[in-house]
TrEMBL record:
<feature type="transmembrane region" description="Helical">
    <location>
        <begin position="7"/>
        <end position="32"/>
    </location>
</feature>
<keyword id="KW-0812">Transmembrane</keyword>
<keyword id="KW-1133">Transmembrane helix</keyword>
<dbReference type="Pfam" id="PF00034">
    <property type="entry name" value="Cytochrom_C"/>
</dbReference>
<keyword id="KW-0479">Metal-binding</keyword>
<feature type="domain" description="Cytochrome c">
    <location>
        <begin position="197"/>
        <end position="291"/>
    </location>
</feature>
<dbReference type="InterPro" id="IPR036909">
    <property type="entry name" value="Cyt_c-like_dom_sf"/>
</dbReference>
<dbReference type="InterPro" id="IPR009056">
    <property type="entry name" value="Cyt_c-like_dom"/>
</dbReference>
<protein>
    <submittedName>
        <fullName>C-type cytochrome</fullName>
    </submittedName>
</protein>
<dbReference type="InterPro" id="IPR051459">
    <property type="entry name" value="Cytochrome_c-type_DH"/>
</dbReference>
<keyword id="KW-0349">Heme</keyword>
<keyword id="KW-0472">Membrane</keyword>
<feature type="domain" description="Cytochrome c">
    <location>
        <begin position="52"/>
        <end position="151"/>
    </location>
</feature>
<keyword id="KW-0408">Iron</keyword>
Length: 291
């Protein structure tokens, strides 16, 4: 009996030590990656403040999901409060109180969007820079023009704070916590993408769908636990049998040809419904070109 007690005591002591050690590894790994200084050259982009540019910027802010995370007024939002990850807020990116500093420049916006880096050249958290880094010069300029002229919103959000589980998942590469790590920092973006109905334009636009539908658009298990699997939307999936009108209805209303309406929380159709008819047609052409 005494012996058993001794073994148990010893065993739990070892367990505790191992847990502590693991926790230390996760802390250090997270800290090290958060503190990494990136050396990138932000390629200058000319920002023009025409009505057309600002309108295109607003359109992009909607269809690229900036508003979903940063809020309708871009004044920031608590984005995630998950016991398995921790707390993440998408910050106030206006120049109001609690927002970006007054000297946050056009180039700082470009650095955030194209490299996933803050003013201090350290990685931003969660911000989907691997997608925004693919935007053309003209589109990124439009977004920056739009952001720079936003009315200041006074809102202070609590700082993001990953818990131990979130740090463990990050260490194992299960959450893309650090935006800059997913970016090809040497990528040279196209100057402009012609806004015409074409496979090429569709490919450019569909980058925004790849985060969920995967790089090959063939879907797979959801990255978020408890969410439905992500369908294949290439020509080998059901989209391959749908007419252009049926596809457009799915993106515009969330309603599938069989009548079921998808939940916006699963497939964000309240966002995709803002794509223009030409954009939807281009995405359709591109997805159907994928064998
Ligand atoms: C999935 C949610 C999400 C989406 C979509 C998103 N962001 Fe972010 N963004 C974040 C988070 C979270 C941060 C904060 C990163 C941090 O705290 O390190 C951030 C940071 C930023 C920053 C940097 C602020 C700073 O402190 O330097 C800018 C600028 C920004 N986002 C603009 C945009 C724009 C413009 C879009 C649309 C093209 C966009 N974001 C889309 C979540 C998002
Ligand atoms: C946040 C993740 C997410 C993003 C971003 C996203 N989707 Fe989806 N999509 C889903 C999920 C999940 C479903 C399945 C939902 C269901 O069946 O209820 C789905 C379903 C679909 C379907 C129906 C497919 C079928 O066979 O039933 C189409 C078409 C589709 N998405 C196209 C797109 C396109 C095009 C984009 C980009 C413009 C996009 N999605 C962006 C998650 C996403």
């Amino acid at each position: 009996m005494k012996k058993l007690k001794k073994v148990l005591l010893y065993g739990s002591g070892v367990m505790l030590l191992l847990l502590l050690l693991a926790a230390m590894v996760f802390q250090v790994n997270f800290y090290w990656r958060a503190q990494k200084d990136y050396v990138v050259k932000v390629r200058p982009v000319e920002i023009t403040y025409t009505t057309e540019a600002i309108q295109q910027g607003r359109h992009l802010a909607v269809v690229k999901g900036c508003n979903d995370c940063h809020g309708q007024d871009m004044g920031g939002k608590a984005m995630l409060d998950d016991p398995a990850i921790g707390f993440v807020s998408a910050p106030n990116i206006t120049k109001g109180a609690g927002g970006l500093p007054a000297d946050y420049s056009e180039a700082d916006y470009v650095r955030a969007l194209r490299h996933g880096l803050g003013k201090d050249n350290k990685s931003l958290l969660i911000m989907p820079a691997h997608e925004t880094s693919k935007l053309s010069d003209k589109d990124v300029a439009a977004l920056v023009a739009y952001c720079m002229q936003l009315p200041p919103v006074n809102r202070t959000l609590p700082e993001s704070d990953f818990n131990m589980m979130g740090k463990a998942l990050t260490t194992f590469g299960l959450i893309p916590a650090f935006a800059a790590e997913g970016v090809d920092h040497t990528y040279i973006q196209p100057k402009e993408m012609l806004q015409e109905v074409s496979v090429k334009y569709g490919k450019y636009l569909a980058v925004s769908c790849s985060g969920c539908h995967k790089a090959d658009y063939k879907g797979g298990p959801s990255p978020v636990l408890g969410f439905p699997p992500i369908p294949n939307i290439s020509s080998t999936g059901r989209v391959g049998n749908w007419s252009k009108a049926q596809f457009a209805a799915v993106l515009k209303t969330g309603q599938l040809p069989d009548g079921r309406i998808m939940r916006n929380e699963d497939m964000p159709w309240k966002m995709t419904r803002h794509y223009t008819t030409e954009e939807v047609e281009s995405i359709y052409l591109y997805l159907r070109s994928l064998k």
